[in-house]
Amino acid sequence: MHEGDEVSAPPRAQAAGVLVNGTPHPWRPGLTVADVLAARGSDDAFVATAVNTRFVPRAARPDTPLLPGDRVVVFSAIVGG
After folding, report:
1. pTM
2. What is the pLDDT of residues 50-71, one digit of tens each?
3. What is the mean pLDDT of the chain?
4. pLDDT in the model for residue 16
5. In degrees, to the nearest 5, what angle opens at C-alpha 57 toward C-alphas 38 and 78?
């Protein structure tokens, strides 16, 4: 492996995809949380996200890569006090 080499999952892992709220979603190299939200048509401002039980802040979504088998949860954010 050399610097600059592209890393991707083997074909079988790509077929596995990621789970979004329990529903399979296709995986591809470079897939991010923001990409998943866009594909679902989710309004980024009104949802909260977690990957493998870890909260992902809105600003971090474009830079949060997903791997085959990751579990993404998208839910309505509740604000109040």
Report:
1. 0.76
2. 999 999 999 999 999 999 999 9
3. 85
4. 74
5. 90
Instruction: Write down the pLDDT at residue 14.
Output: 43
> Residue 57 is which amino acid?
P
Q: What CA–CA distances, in Å, run from 8 to 30, 50, 53, 66?
A: 9, 23, 24, 11
- Phi, psi of 51, deg, nearest 5: -120, 120
Predicted pLDDT at 15: 53
Task: Please provide the size of the chain in residues.
Answer: 81
Give CA angle at 67 (62, 71), nearest 5°. 85
Phi, psi of 62 (to 5 degrees): -65, -20
Which DSSP letter does residue 68 get? T
- SS3 of 11, please? helix
Tokens standing for residue 56: 């992902």
